[in-house]
Amino acid sequence: IDASRSVPVVSNLLSDNERDRFAAEVLEEYAKVRSQYEGHQREKEYVPLEEARAKKFTIDFAAEPPVAPKSTGIFTYRNYPLAELVPYIDWTPFFMAWELAGKFPRILEDEVVGKQATQLYADAQKMLDRIVKEQWIQAHGVAAIWPANTTDHDDIALYGDQARTKVIGRVRTLRQQSKKAPGVPYLALGDFIAPAGTSDFLGGFAVSAGHGVDERVKRFEAAHDDYSAILLKALADRLAEAFAEKLHEVVRQELWGYETARLTNEQLIKEEYQGIRPAPGYPACPDHTEKPELFRLLDATKHTGITLTESLAMSPAAAVSGWYFAHPQAKYFGVGRVARDQVED
C-alpha cells in the first residue's frame, strides 16, 4: 500500500529544482518529531520493577475460577474455506490502508471520500469474488490450548500435561512501569493467568491467508497492473485478520467452550466477547522476541507454512499470530516504555 505514496517523493528527489528543498523539509520535520519525542520521554517517570509488581493487577481466582477447556493440545486448519472468512472481514482498516478515513459502511456515504470509497469497495468485491471462486490464495491456521500458570511474577509457564509436571515453554510478559496515580495497578499479561495451585490455561494461534499472493501479484506487475497488485495484498491482509477472528470464535465456542452466544460481525469488531488475543509486537506484548517461542510451541511453520524473517516479521505478510487469554477480566492495555531494571530482569 505504501508504494502508492512514493510517486511524489520520487518526483521530488529526481527534480533538480525540488531535491534540495524537499530534503531540507524532511530533515526539519524529523528534527521536530525527534525533539518532541525526546521531550515527552524526559517528562515521564518510572517506578522500580519491584514496586510495579507489588502494585500489580489482581484477580480473585477463587471467586472467578478459570474455565477448563473442552479440549487441549494443537489443532490444525489447512486450506480453510475462504468463503467462510468473508463475513468476518473488518472493512474499516481496508479503507484506512488506502488513506480513506471513515468507518465502514458510513464511509461509502461520506461527502468527501464516499465516491472514491464506493468505487474501491466495488473493485474489492469483484476481486474478492474471484479470490474465493478461483482459489487464488490458501488459508492455513493452527491453534493450541495448554495448561498454564504464572510464575516468577510476570512469566507464564506452559505445561505438557494436565498434571503440570513438565514445563514445555515460558511466556515472558512485560509489566507497565510508567508512574500512575495512587490505586491504579501496573498491568502485565501474566496477571490474567492464575498462579500455581489453580488450574488455568493459555492459548496460542497463527493464521495466514497469504499463500499464493506473491505469485498472483507478480502476474499483475508483469502486466503493469499495480492497482490490482496492491488491491490483492490489501484483501489478503483483511482475510488473514478475518481468519484470526473466525478461529478465535471457534476456540471460544468449541475448543475452550466458554461462549455460547453467536455474535454479529459488528459485535466481533467491537470485541464484545470474553477474552483477548494479544499479538507479539502490539501494545500489550510489544516484545517481538517472544514470537519464536510461540511458533515453536505451535510448530507453526509446519502447520501453516508461515516463517519468521531475521527481523521476526511473518512471511507471507498476510499473517496473524498471538495468544488467547480467556478470563473475563483479561483486557487490552499498552505496556509503554519500561525501565532498565525490567530489561535486565
How would you portray this structure in words?
Helix 5 (114-133) crosses helix 7 (226-255) and helix 6 runs antiparallel to helix 7 (226-255). This protein has 2 domains: 2-40; 49-82 and 139-210 and 235-344, Roll (Cobalamin-dependent Methionine Synthase, domain 1). Strands 1, 2, 3, 4, 5 and 8 form a 6-stranded antiparallel beta sheet that branches. A two-stranded antiparallel sheet has the order 6-7. 37% of the residues lie in helices and 15% in strands. It has helices at residues 6-14, 19-43, 49-54, 92-97, 114-133, 213-222, 226-255, 265-269, 291-298, 300-304, 340-344; strands at residues 73-77, 138-151, 155-159, 167-172, 200-211, 307-308, 314-315, 319-324. A hairpin with a 5-residue loop joins strand 6 and strand 7. The chain is of the alpha+beta class and 345 residues long.
Which descriptors would you attach to this protein?
two-stranded antiparallel ribbon; Cobalamin-dependent Methionine Synthase, domain 1; 345 residues; alpha+beta; 15% strand; 2 domains; 11 helices; single chain
Write the layout of secondary structure elements.
Elements: H1 6-14, H2 19-43, H3 49-54, E1 73-77, H4 92-97, H5 114-133, E2 138-151, E3 155-159, E4 167-172, E5 200-211, H6 213-222, H7 226-255, H8 265-269, H9 291-298, H10 300-304, E6 307-308, E7 314-315, E8 319-324, H11 340-344
Antiparallel strand pairs: 1-2, 2-3, 2-5, 3-4, 5-8, 6-7
Helix pairs in contact: 5-7, 6-7
Quick overview of this protein structure:
The protein is about 35% helix and about 15% strand. The protein is α+β, with helices and mostly antiparallel strands.
